[in-house]
Amino acid sequence: MQGAPPTESVAWRVRQAVGPSSGALGGARVFANCRLRRGVTLVEIIIVLVIISAIAGIAVISLGAVGSARLKQAATQIAGSTRVAYAHATAVSKVVRLNFDFTESKIYLEEAEGRHLLANDRNGGAEAANDIEAQAAENAAASTLRAPKSTFRAAETIGFPEEGVELPSTIQFWQVQAAHQPEPIRDGNAYLYFFPGGQTQHAAIQLRMSNASEDDTHGFMTVLISPLSGKATIKRGRLDPPNPLTAEAASELGDPG
Asked: Taking the model in full, what pTM does it have?
């Protein structure tokens, strides 16, 4: 093999590789071929992994922000619903209730047909709306006498359609606790009652992002209801209603007419 001139060894090798007429384009091709032959360096791999991790982190943060916004929106829906029900009970001079449907993740506004006496049971002394309530009412009737039960029908008013209000996607009712309930409710239907003249119940409606674990305070919100004013207060996390009414006090609430 012909030896390289001692003073032009690098240039000579380049010319030998790409030919005498390739010029600058040939040199660039050689440089690219050399990079391909040596492969990807560890530093380049690390840079790519860092970029991928950053993109994934941004996606997770975005999903969390969306879930948090929906959770707050649902809490605001409940707060608004309580104001509507509070005003509607006085406007129509009837006992009104909010029906929290765990299965459909909806809120319904309902009116009593006739006089209603609130009872200290799961459905507040009203007719059973499903099998769970029917069984609870049957167990209660076995040991005590009860006043005739009222029936409720769907109501419609400004800002509250008859088909109810649906919670935002991925948001669920976690637990509803009102003064007339012996135990918090986590399935079926739960109710919050409103009375003519301006009165409701102590209550706590807990909401949950569908993928939140029980100890994740950021995945829950609670709407606390004041009985005298109907004011709704939104709090982060899972909270019980403050100063719940006794069973005796709850049983005395009813339609005065």
From this structure: 0.63
Q: Which domains does the chain have, with CATH numbers?
A: 57-252 (3.55.40.10)
Burial zone of 228 (CB within 10 Å; 0-12 exposed, 13-18 middle, 19+ buried): exposed
Strand bridging mode 151-154 / 106-113: antiparallel
Residue with the bigger pLDDT between 132 and 253: it is 132
Query: What is the rounded distance in angstroms from the CA atom of residue 208 to the CA atom of residue 21?
Result: 73
Q: Which residue has the tokens 């409940």?
A: 78
The owner of tokens 């209550």 is 203
> How would residue 114 be classed by pLDDT, with cut points 50, 70 and 90?
confident
User: Residues with Cβ < 8 Å from 49, sequence gap 6 or more?
Assistant: none
Question: Which residues is 100 bridged to in the sheet?
Answer: 107, 190
Is the C-alpha dihedral spanning 231, 232, 234, 239 positive or negative?
positive
- The distance of Cα 76 from the centroid of its chain, to the nearest Å, equals 11
